[in-house]
Amino acid sequence: MTTIPIITGLSLGILGSMHCVGMCGPIALSLPVHQLPPVQKYANIFLYNIGRAFTYAIMGAVLGLLGSSFEIFGLQQALSIGGGVLILILAAIYYLRPGWVGSTAWSAKVSNKLGQLMRKDKSYGTYFSIGILNGFLPCGLVYLAVAGALSLSNVWGSMGFMMFFGLGTFPAMMAMAMSHKIISIKQRMSMRKIYPMVTLVMGAYLIYRGLMSEMPLE
C-alpha cells in the first residue's frame, strides 16, 4: 500500500469532519462520560472513536475485495469514473433534499441498537461497541469515502483509505465529546453545508483520475 490512500483518506476525514459533527454530534454528546474521572472519560471517548474507525477499516477491506474484481476484468478506470459520476449525483440529491440520507429503516434499526447500548453497563467494551455501530449509520460523507475506497481496487489500499478517513474525523469528534457543548440546529445545518463542497471535489477527482489512465490508482 502506498501513501496515496492514506493521505487522501486522512484529508477527506479532516475536511469533512465538520459534517460529522453536524450529523453524529448528538451521539457524541449523548455518551454518558461526563460524570466519570478524567482519565476514564477520555479513554471511553477515544474507544468510541476507535470503534468508528474500526468499522470503516472493515468496510474498506470488503470494498477492496469487491474493487479488485473490477481490476481483474480491466474495469478499474471505468469504476473510478462511474464512482465520480455517482458521487456528483449524490451531491445534487443531497443539495436538493438534505435529509434524505438519514431517513431509512436501516438508520432506525441502528439507532435503536445504539439506544440499547447507551443504557447498558458502561464498560470499555460498550463504548467501543457504540463506536462500531455508529460507523454503520447512513451518512453522506461515509458514502463518499466508500466510493473512493471502492475505486482503489486494492484490499490494503481501500482498508487504509477508510481507516485513515475515520482517523481524520478524530480531532473534531473528540473535541466535541470532551467539551459536551451543545450545538444548535442552526449551527449543525451550517456545518452540513460543507459536505456538498467536499463531495464535488472528490467526485471531480475520481473522474479525472479515471480519465487519466496513466495516473496511479493505489
Summed up, what is this model?
The protein has 10 helices and no strands.
Q: Your description of this structure?
A:
- This protein has 218 residues and is mostly helical.
- Helices cover 79% and strands 0% of the residues.
- α4 runs antiparallel to α5.
- The C terminus is likely disordered.
Q: How do the helices and strands line up, and which of them pair or pack?
A:
Elements: H1 3-30, H2 38-72, H3 76-96, H4 105-118, H5 124-134, H6 140-152, H7 155-168, H8 170-179, H9 185-192, H10 194-211
Helix content: over 70%
Q: Ranges with pLDDT <50 over ≥5 residues?
A: 214-218
> How much beta, percentage-wise?
under 5%
Whole-number mean pLDDT: 78
The helix tally amounts to: 10
- Radius of gyration from CA coordinates: 17 Å
Q: Characterize the biggest β-sheet.
A: none
Structural class: mainly alpha
Q: Got a strand count?
A: 0
Order of helices and strands: HHHHHHHHHH
Termini gap: 7 Å
The protein's oligomeric status is single chain
Characterize the overall form.
Answer: globular
What attributes does this structure have?
218 residues; mainly alpha; 79% helix; 0% strand; globular; disordered C terminus
